[in-house]
Amino acid sequence: MYETLTYTGGIHKHEEMIELIEDLGGFVLQETISQMDLVLTLAVPLEDVVKVEQKARELLGSIKVAPMAGTEIAIVSPTLARQHLPHSACDISEYLRRYGAKDNMIGLQRGAGKGISRISEDEKRLIEEHDLAVFALGSFKDCILNKTHLFEDIDIPVVVTGAPELDADEIPSATAYISGLGRIPRRLKRGENIRALKKLAEVVEGILDQKRVDMADDPPILPSILVKTEIEYQIPAIKEVYSPAPVVSQLDGVRVKLDYDKYHDQVSEVVVDDYRLGDVSEIRKSMMYDYTLVKLLPETSII
User: Fold this and answer.
1) Distance of alpha carbon 129 from alpha carbon 29, whole angstroms
2) Closest CA to 93 of 74, 111, 107, 112
3) Which 3 state secondary structure label does DSSP give 132?
4) 3-state secondary structure at position 121
5) Burial of 212 (0-12, 13-18, 19+ CB in 10 A)
6) Residue of 30, 8, 22 whose CA lies nearest to 249
7) Which of 68, 161, 206, 252 lies 20 to 30 A from 197 at CA?
């Protein structure tokens, strides 16, 4: 079992931290450098967390648990227009990153207006490529209840946010509802806003934990973090991707930020623990920039 952590510190001697993680049999999930500051999202064996904490203190950095690391979350706004996107959706996205999540902002093409809002099949497929979706809706109860069709048949857990107090039973299509996060024309820095964001993080973490428990009954034959590492080692083109996360871990697979048409054959030939990746996963074209999406098959489906 692995513990997912976030290390924050300076770039001076940071290679010592990376070497320690590799020596312990852990993985660096994401590395972000901003000027002289460094943030590492990592996974290490549970019994070795103390060693990582000691090294962090030695390097004058800090370590905290990142319970959402290794997951990809969609933050969905009805539109990209100013009446919907800023500021709550942006702050929700930034806040979940603090817990280790890799999130993507998605604005629907025709989601505006409670009577005319729509979601296309392509948008649904894009959202369903993620582990969980957060739909950041508005400030009026009537508007929220008239937009449940946007997520009523999406096959991943959906958390809805809005301003009014509502019972979860009033939105049967949603896995959970968090109030206090409507359309607010400012940054979410006040006490009530922070409390709502903390509640959202707790709910999302609980849903992801339950998803992990459900998957444990029939887990993927390979752990996604190991697949991520082997793809980075075995496909040279990954080194030419300038994204901070060229391979993104999900609970049941990875998103490889390489063009599907050019690289899916190479991805299929990656060998992980004596398994050819194409034999133990479904590899398809992502709805996001034609990236390559790898969804690992459960153990019971491998003959």
Assistant:
1) 19
2) 74
3) strand
4) helix
5) middle
6) 30
7) 252
Q: Cα 119–125–131 angle (5° rounding)?
A: 110
Same domain, yes or no: 147 and 202: yes
- Residue 111 to residues 83, 92, 139, 145, 260: CA-CA distances in angstroms? 12, 19, 15, 14, 29
What does each C-alpha distance from 132 to 10, 190, 286 come to in angstroms? Answer: 32, 26, 16
- What's the pLDDT band for 82 if we cut at 50, 70, 90? low
Rounded-to-integer distance, Cα 137 and Cα 88, Å? 9
Residues with Cβ within 8 Å of 258's Cβ and at least 6 positions away in sequence, in order, are 235, 237, 238, 241, 246, 267, 291, 292
Contacts of 222 (CB under 8 A, 6+ apart): 272, 273, 275, 280, 281, 296
Whole-number pLDDT of residue 184:
76
Judgement on whether residues 104 and 184 belong to the same structural domain of the protein: yes
The label of the residue with tokens 């034609």 reads 290
Report pLDDT digits (tens) over 127-174: 999 999 999 988 888 888 988 999 999 999 999 998 889 887 889 889
Q: Are residues 90 and 133 in the same domain?
A: yes
Distance of alpha carbon 40 from alpha carbon 297, whole angstroms: 28
Q: How far apart are the first and last CA of the chain?
A: 26
Range of the domain at 100: 72-215
How many CB atoms neighbour CB 178 within 10 A? 23
